[in-house]
Amino acid sequence: MPGDRVFDRSAEDIGNIVLLEHVNVKIPDQIVATNFYVTALGLTRDPYIMTGTENMWINAGQQQFHMPTGKPEVLRGVVGFVVPDLEGLKMRLTSAREKLGGTKFMCAADDKYVSVTCPWGNKMRFHAPGPEFGDMTLGIPYVEFAVRPNTAVGIAKFYQTAMGAPASVTFNGNTSAKVQVGAKQHLIFRETAEPEVPYDGHHIAIYVTNFSGPHRWLKDRGLISEESNPVQYRFKDIVDPETSKVLFTIEHEVRSATHPMYMRPLVSRNAAQQQRTYQRGRDAFYPEPTRPSEAGSSRRRLVRRREALLARYSPSAASATTILVRLRLAQETRQDGVRDRVRHVVHGVRDRRHQIRHGARHRIDHRRDGLSHRARQTRHRTGRGTRHAVECAVAPPVTALSVFVVPLARFESPFVVAPTAPVAVLVTPPTAALTAGHT
Q1: How many helices (H) and strands (E) does the chain have?
Q2: What is the pLDDT of residue 310?
Q3: Is the predicted pLDDT of residue 327 greater than 70, yes or no?
Q4: How far apart are CA 48 and CA 436, in angstroms?
Q5: Separation in Å, CA 35 to CA 85, 91, 345, 403
Q6: What is the count of structural domains for the chain?
Q7: Are 161 and 241 in contact (CB under 8 A)?
Q8: For residue 112, which phi and psi values (nearest 5 degrees)?
Q9: Among the four residues 63, 114, 171, 433, which has the most C-beta atoms within 10 Å?
Q10: Contact 256, 231 (CB under 8 A)
């Protein structure tokens, strides 16, 4: 109709791949993995599944790292993470250097992210939350693979044709194919001139809504590598849809949206919680529903403040660590101040309600006491009047007497002369007009 608003409906399309759930790499040492993934990175070991030493599942928001025990595997690329606190991550990584000594562990802070290499060589990038990641504050927004030159276009066509996923190719001096997963996740295939590293068996897990269509396309070309169960299958090779040439190898664990583990709720802890600074009720991690613009503005203010403090003090590692600790404590202090103000308001409302109830009871008690007092006074007055009436009724009659009033001016002392019978004496001023009568 004329006047209707126009929207780009294609901007909300998410394609057939709806979730990138986990990355799977083998590791040789669960203790070293715990020191790195849990202690240094601040992630959480799944408390419900794979709790033994034969496998380790590490939760990161709605995504996971699966790490069976075995010969170490290295993903041919980079895994991207979003974490709520980059400064806290830097402090934990600095503290973990000694425990992770003698391994391939490395970390470096770049302009927009923190680069980390795990003890066995897997590379990771850690970002702060931002508009490019939607409302994700903890999770894996992308996995980036290094591929041979002149393969990005064919890889994009493969995901469009075989998997039904939107894909695009950029040619800005560093050609790459970008495959959309869900709303804000991506698989990125970036061309590089470096020699291709042999594939060692690691894999990724994805969920799709059209489960049978991709399976049929892949099976017709002999690309299915495992028929796992009714809700899961696997394939390894990414091929050019036109020539069937293998462009890249990465095993995909393809799951249906009817899989029982689809969008399974994952537990994540608050990595900032420590024994010496423990705060009740803050053990678990809960995403903060902030608008991306506000989150970015807050981060920029924190970065500017950090840079100002670093410029003021010594640039040594010890001083930098001290400043970062102070910044973290200041941020927690501001959060505590907000909670204290809310708690103060709540307590004030409760105290006011208590005062109102207490005042009402006090007024009722006071009114009840007043009524009781007045009732006692009434009974007392009534009793006195009755007794007086009875006394008057039984008293003997008073003998009549005459009262003689003499003006005071004629004597030095005012007095009244009367017969010897009972006398009533009246003393009045000289100017008063007095009259005498008989009672």
Answers
A1: 6, 18
A2: 53
A3: no
A4: 115
A5: 19, 14, 42, 120
A6: 1
A7: yes
A8: -115, -5
A9: 63
A10: yes
pLDDT for the residue 390: 47
How deeply is 351 buried, as exposed, middle or buried, from its count of CB atoms within 10 A (0-12, 13-18, 19+)? exposed
39 lies in a domain? yes
Q: State pLDDT tens for residues 196-247.
A: 999 999 999 999 999 999 999 999 999 999 999 999 999 999 999 999 999 9
Task: Give CA–CA dist 27/36, Å, rounded.
Answer: 12
> Cα–Cα distances in Å, from 208 out to 52, 178, 257?
30, 17, 6
CA atoms within 13 A on the CB side of 24: 16
Question: Given phi > 0 = left and psi -120 to 50 = alpha, else beta, which region is 164?
Answer: left
Q: What is the CATH number of the domain that holds 237?
A: 3.10.180.10
Report residue 211 as tokens: 């489960």
Bridging pattern class, strands 203-208 and 246-256: parallel
Domain that holds residue 175: 12-256
Q: What's the pTM value of the predicted model, to 2 decimals?
A: 0.67
Q: How many residues does the chain have?
A: 439
Q: Where are the alpha helices (DSSP H) in 17-163?
A: 30-33, 86-95, 152-161
The confidence score (pLDDT) of residue 203 equals 98
| Range 135-163 average pLDDT | 97
pLDDT at residue number 401: 42
pLDDT value, residue 335? 65
Looking at this protein, which amino acid is placed at residue 201? Answer: G
Burial (0-12, 13-18, 19+ Cβ within 10 Å), 52: exposed
3-state SS class at 161: helix
Would 99 be classed as within a structural domain? yes
pLDDT in tens, 269-321: 999 998 999 999 999 998 876 454 444 555 555 555 555 555 555 444 444 55
Residue 96: name the closest of 105, 84, 83 by CA: 105
3-state secondary structure of 60: strand
Q: Angle CA(103)–CA(104)–CA(106) in degrees, nearest 5?
A: 115
Q: Other C-beta atoms within 10 Å of 223: how many?
A: 20
Residue 101 within any structural domain of the chain: yes
CA 298 to CA 288: how far, in whole Å?
13
Is pLDDT at 419 greater than 50 in this prediction?
A: no
Which residues, in sequence order, are bridge partners of residue 103? none
At residue 380, what are phi and psi to the nearest 5 degrees?
A: -65, -45
Amino acid in position 431: T
- The CA distance from 108 to 112, in Å, is 11
Q: Measured between alpha carbons, how far is 270 from 278 in angstroms, rounded to an integer?
A: 11
Q: Give the span between the Cα atoms of 196 and 201, in whole angstroms.
A: 15
Whether 85 is covered by a domain: the verdict is yes
